[in-house]
Amino acid sequence: MKERDEQLFQLLRLSLGVSQDFPETLSDKAWKELYRLAGRQSVIAVCHAGVSRLQPPFELALRWAFDAETTRGLNKLLNSEAARLTRLFAEAGRRTAILKGQANARLYPDPMARQPGDIDIWVEGGKKSVLSLISSSPQFGGGPEIVTYHHAHLPITEKGVEVEVHFRPSSGNYNVLSNRRLQRWLEQEIAAHSTEVAEGFRVPSVSFALIMQMSHIQRHFFEGGMELRLVCDYYYLLQHAQEEERRNVAAQLKRLGLHHTAGALMWVLRKVLLLDEGLLLCPPDSYRGEWLLQVMMVNGNLGQYAGWLQYGVWRRFLMNKKRQIGLMRFDFWEAFWMLLDYWKWLAETIPQRLRYRTLSQRDALKKENKTSWIQNITKSPDTSSK
Question: Per-residue pLDDT tens for 133-145?
Fold first, then answer.
């Protein structure tokens, strides 16, 4: 573990009130590196609570404060847009629930400090019905721009907010057998248990969030990158879960294909945020946990800092395939089905690539001018080589 990574963990603990342990003095260079790492891990605003108690360089302190205030404004905007979308779908007779981001932010000591992204909103009715609704209703932007396995991307709102409408609760597992069980469990849970909150939208149960976001973390890890923000989210989910909820979720992990990732995440939560042993869902797995943490710290948010991205398409392809094969040591069946899914997707898109004489499906889509209703282009884990 790099020294600077450990200092970021200490700053995060200080900011969240987990620990008061932090180096008395840091050089200006060390502070700049901490700021850079916090940005890669999407925790700049969360860490500001700790930074405000310390003495970083003046210019950096101002920049950090500016970023934190910007995050507060973005959270207010996304809360407002989430409430507006909830009302629009309610007027159309649909139940909804906000997933991940703004639902998680409510659990933080400072709900405005979590760095937001887009809005993920689950809408009841299934794929065909939900797509028909948003395509025929002008208030949803005139139809989706991209449709994937589990959600549709709406056109960016007038206020610049990206919205993903989920007709399935989760992108799920690559393992088709465990994914069927996962999707069924999530559908039943979200349909039966959601709560309206003061922010003006509905949120799913903590049990749903613990399972769904474990699957979300697993998917991001297998695709090459995740960030500390997701670890902080899970920390607060566990803090807010009742003992019975944690016990029931723990009983589902193996059946839903999440037990290896759960063990790794519990180790990371103990290592980074000193999570109390009584809140763990399962015994920590140090082997997989160190692997998960290394990928997170090296590749950063959505894997956008991964080393293979700097290379050409062929070398990038080979390095990524080597990485994916290596994941069989983490979870054999999840990695096996991920590779099978990729080769199936590649075979299906060969005619399109040949037609436009390009290795990149993204370039083929540009030439074909497909700007709407693009089916399943984001399903493959190998987004870096598309």
Answer: 998 888 887 778 8
